[in-house]
């Protein structure tokens, strides 16, 4: 079984879901754990992410994750298509600033 981590953003979104939506997301995560490359690899600014699209009834969900080779998967974000990529890009910039800040404080 593959290790699976989740960001605070993913966790927060997941906790707000209705139980039927949670079951759909859990099913998508199970699929990812057996085949982490089924998501679409993004390019450009979002090149570190994969996005797996799945449906619950008429609604399409997007699940962004990072595939960390044999170490596992980091679940990054979850949502509908509206503003999903814009928000994912913003989150990536915030994480980069935090990493630079931590590196500066380590010196």
Quickly describe the structure.
With 107 residues, the protein is an alpha+beta fold. It contains three helices and five strands, in the order βααββββα.
Write up what this structure looks like:
β3 (50-56) and β4 form a beta hairpin. It is globular and about 45 Å long. It starts with a strand and ends with a helix. It has one domain (4-106): YaeB-like fold. The chain is α+β, with helices and mostly antiparallel strands and 107 residues long. The chain has three helices and five strands, in the order βααββββα. Strands 1-5-4-3-2 form a five-stranded mixed β-sheet. The protein has helices at 8-15, 19-34, 84-106; strands at residues 4-6, 40-41, 50-56, 59-67, 73-79. Helix content is 44%, strand content 26%.
Taking the sheet with the most strands, its summary is: 5 strands, mixed
Q: From N to C, what is the helix and strand string?
A: EHHEEEEH
CATH overall fold name: YaeB-like fold
User: Architecture, CATH level 2?
Assistant: 2-Layer Sandwich
Question: Tell me, what's the shape?
Answer: globular
Total domains: 1
Helix and strand content put the structural class at alpha+beta
CATH top level is: Alpha Beta
Number of helices: 3
* CATH homologous superfamily placement: RelE-like
Straight-line distance between termini: 37 Å
What value does the average pLDDT take?
Answer: 89
Number of strands: 5
Spatially, the strands of the biggest sheet line up as: 1-5-4-3-2
Low-pLDDT stretches are none
* Radius of gyration, in angstroms, nearest whole number: 14 Å
Helix content: 40-55%
Proportion of strand residues: 25-35%
